[in-house]
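Re: export button greyed out
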Amino acid sequence: MAEKRVHWSVYAFGVYLLLPLYWLVNMSLQRNQDIVGEFAIVPRNPTLTNYAEIFTNPVWYEAFGNSLAYVSINTLVSLTVAIPAAYAFSRYRFLGDRQLFFWLLTNRMAPPAVFLLPFFQLYSAVGLFDTPFAVAFAHCLFTVPLSVWILEGFMSSVPREIDEMARLDGHAFGYFFFRLFLPLIKSGLGVTVFFCFMFSWVELLIARTLTASEAKPIAVVMTRTVSASGLDWGVLAAAGVLTIVPGIAVVWFVRRHLARGFALGRV
Amino acid sequence: MQRRADNRAWFAVAPVVVVVAFTAIVPLMTVVNYSVQDIFDVDTRLFIGFDFYRETLRDPRFAQALLRQLAFSALVLAIEIPLGIWIARALVRNQGKSATGFLILLSVPLLVPWNVVGTIWQIYARPDIGLLGAAVTALGIPYNYASNVLSAWVTLLAMDVWHWTSLVALLSFAGLSAISPAYYQAATLDGANAWQTFRHVELPHLKAVLTIAVLLRLMDSLMIYTEPFVLTGGGPGNSTTFLSQYLTTMAVGQFDLGPAAAFSVLYFLMILLLCWLFYTSVMRGGDDG
Amino acid sequence: MASIQARDLRYTYRGATAPSVSGADLDIEDGEAHALLGASGAGKTTLLNLLAGLFFPDSGQLKLNGEDVSERSGRERNIAQVFQFPVLYPAMNVRENLAFPLRARGWRKANALARVKEVATLLDVTALLHQRVQRLSLFEKQLVAIGRALVRPDVSVVLLDEPLTAVEPSIKWRLRAALKTVQRELGLTMVYVTHDQVEALTFADRISMLMDGRILQTGSPQRLYEQPHTAVVATFIGSPGMNLVSAQVRDQWFVVAGQLLAPAPGVSDGVCQIGFRPEWAHVRVDRESDEQFALPVNLTGWRAMGAVGNRTDALLTLDHGGETLFVHQSGDEPPPPQCRLYIDTARMVAYRNGVLLARPTGNDAA
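Workaround output, generated via the alternate export path:
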């Protein structure tokens, strides 16, 4: 098709997406008294003190570390259990396979609020409360079914003949699986990491319920700071900007794989 | 080549089953357990059957939260699905560099922590320090999401559109990219107008991804909690208190375990039912797409 | 239906360094089945898209029935197109698919349905009319797609872009036969893009052979087979292609390996190549007669290709001083390794610098 100009409405929507983000950045570069004092479209006295505050205050940067910790554990656990399961679903028929697959997907429909209290009791009982592991495992409820689903799609797009050929060539299964098969679905692994990361990073409700002081994630620190210190808008905005950065970085790294993920309709 | 029948595949699936059992079944059983017993302390509990369910269903606040929830989800779907398709259509005709940049921009709201989404809009929409709030107020429209019910709803909808339209747009973009240019060429030569091309070429090819998009938006909007919690806290009054908020207040705030558990079970079943209804009605419309 | 005249069409893709179509001339008569033949990348699909109005030529002129349509869209040119894979409206049944081009142009329902019935009868798809498109086989789908291209009676040209690619080889001939019948019966002007010479040779009234964005030769299948204008066309067409043997012209005679092969009246002295199809020559052990030209060759391969009557038809691979030659010959046994090759000099052709030389044995009409 001949290239056409993008419709103006798309630019309008782009502005709609950008303006709140711009305002967040704008706020993060001002002192609280300037924000509350006089309304300004562009910061009058731009300053990085808000960011300095976050990087020097252990409450903030430890919270960042906590978040990254449970996000990483979650991604690792999800991939570890989902890869063999997705392979089984894509390659074999077995008793109850369809029912199991469907049941896994229904977990995606469970409202996190429903699980709050039982999670709290469960993880308290096993002594994981207020550790990154509690949040990581709890998030598995959503990320594991999603990972199985995404990976199954990618694995099914790899012809089954390749498995057979590797067997006939005399490769051990382990060699085939790790050296030949997984590299073929690199994009799928990328997309899965992206979505595990995305879900675990953005979730608040469960993370808040399962942590108290030691493992408090950044999202929680933000909401608690709001109520405690009488609203320092500048610091809050700076923390907001910083929570968006990892997401953008991840998108940037997996952008090519994402395109393939979209092409398979498994996103 | 067909999938081979082999029950040993269960060994490969077992870890997933264990993890999901630990994270889903045990808690769910706990919830069901609470919902049918009245617990006084660790040793004293009374089986009361469906009393809590009856109580929940008769609770006028539950009914109100449910109505608000359904209205919110319906509005969100009615805005985000057509808007997302529209954006995707406009983008897919231009496969240049600007489209790639725009796709990255689209994915940004999806990666913002949900409470930060609330914070962003809290800052953005406040009449005193927010760009949006100040602009609307400057136009002479009375606007304050903290005190005015209409303002609160409009802000929540605007926020959800900001947050989630991208998902619909990205999925639709994927679906549209997969349509061969030959279909457009054929439709043009057949004399189809823009509407007919959309109706007979694009929409049927989008059916699969749109089903996923609607399902995801349906279930996620039914579960919405964090963003309104940060932005409006459920107010003014209870005007933006949706099901998850009400449930959380009940369970954590008031510690009404039994009724909260009954509520949870009903809530989960309702989402399953709505998704199932949607899915079967789409699938009954034919297996094309 | 319409005739097509294209003059010096040129098209370069944006960002590409070389043009995809560079100076194509085409003359296609009303009611002609015309094939654009070439390897992938030859520019045939680009040329088709120029005809379809999907791209507009950078320069040059395109006329339909003498009217300049270079600047008009495919819709205004009133063109129909069949694609590599069946392009159908997925949510409609077969009847609705066939009726759509008519309904979209404002035909009344009753008239449209009557016309659909005619076309369905012609293509023998009446039984499928109520089927959903998903239920059809690939072959049936492509048949319906062809039907949709034919349903408008006023269509000027039907363009086909490798329409048999997706269809199973075993039923390709059925679809091709159906197409050919319809083309004849309705007197349609068809332009058929293919890389498969068998398809082109059996389907088209005339063929244009493309390479590197240029049309090397346009002519009847017989003409392209027997009198290729260039050595490139000669070797592209045929399976295997034409044999070319280094030769010289001396005193108005073709000389190969020191022997006089055939007279070359009016041809100046110099190097050349003589060309002959694998079935225009045969191999023998003995000398037929002392006067007749015979090329000493070594047999390097013998492969049975099928049976002709009760004798085996074989493809012989021969070596002549480093040049590999192919010959079709019947015989149940391979000939001995050293033998002689006799060429039918009445049919052979000759090339100098890759261009056809005047035929050595007069009788120039094809």
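The mean pLDDT of chain C is 87. The button fix ships in the next patch.
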